[in-house]
Amino acid sequence: MYHGTPIGGPAQDAARFLFGRHALVPFTYQINLGAVAEFCSSFVFDNGAYTLWKKGGTLDVDEYIKWCDSWSKHPGLDWCLIPDVIDGSEEENDVMLGCWPKDLPGVPVWHLHESLERLTRLSHEWHRVALGSSGAYSHPGSKKWHTRMIDVMNTLCDELGRPRCRIHGLRMAAPKIVERYPFSSVDSTNVAVNSNATRAYCPPSRWQRAVNLAWRLEFNSPPTWNLIDG
Predict the structure, then answer these.
(1) pLDDT by residue (tens digit) across 138-181?
(2) Distance CA 72, CA 85 (A)
(3) Measured distance CA(18)–CA(103) in Å, rounded
């Protein structure tokens, strides 16, 4: 589980929460990067292209690559999400993959509305593939989404249910999802978004609330895809 940052609150509280955990750092908001690099077991980089697109901006791909390269020797950096063209075609996104430096640990994004043929190809060409909910399948956990995920897993896994490559689930950290599909990793901004909420009988400090939320999310996925249940 990679927890999306920034966590918010006092810097020491973010450091307490991040200690020993795994984090996702967006290119567009690096305020927790120092604490992440110092205290996390590992971390990944997100290009933030979708967030920029929603705000009417565009990602500076060259600067993102430079940023990834500047951290590539840090032992805690696992991988970086390769930028994609929001609302772009499969061909346009393949061009983006071709521009990614071969010496950087990149992970391509496959969107659930894209073809299974492209997913098959990516799973053969890359060590890990990130799955992104999109189009008619933009709501993780919905009935339509699960139906599509059955096709996805049947494409990615062999006759014994073993994934051909490592699978990362973008925004797929809900326990009912994690416990069903053989993810290698998932990410969530649940802690970052909700740790500031206060209500009766909840921990008094933000970092304690963050830990409480994280404990509810940190589950292991099964090692194989159950073809019968699918």
Answers:
(1) 999 999 999 999 999 999 999 999 999 999 999 999 999 999 99
(2) 23
(3) 28
Q: β-strands 106-107, 109-111: how paired?
A: unpaired
Query: CATH classification of 2-217, choosing from 3.40.50, 3.10.20, 1.25.40, 3.20.20?
Result: 3.20.20
CA-CA-CA-CA torsion sign (218, 127, 85, 133):
negative
- 190, 207 Cβ separation under 8 angstroms: no
pLDDT band with cut points at 50, 70 and 90 for residue 56 = confident
Q: Is 69 within 8 Å of 45 (Cβ atoms)?
A: no
> How confident is the model over 182-222, as pLDDT tens digits?
999 999 987 776 655 555 446 656 656 666 566 566 768 88
φ, ψ of residue 143 in degrees (nearest 5): -60, -45
**Unique residue bearing structure tokens 């996390």:** 40
Global pTM value: 0.89
Domain boundaries, the chain: 2-217
The Cα–Cα gap between 71 and 46 comes to 13
How many residues are listed for the chain in this entry?
230
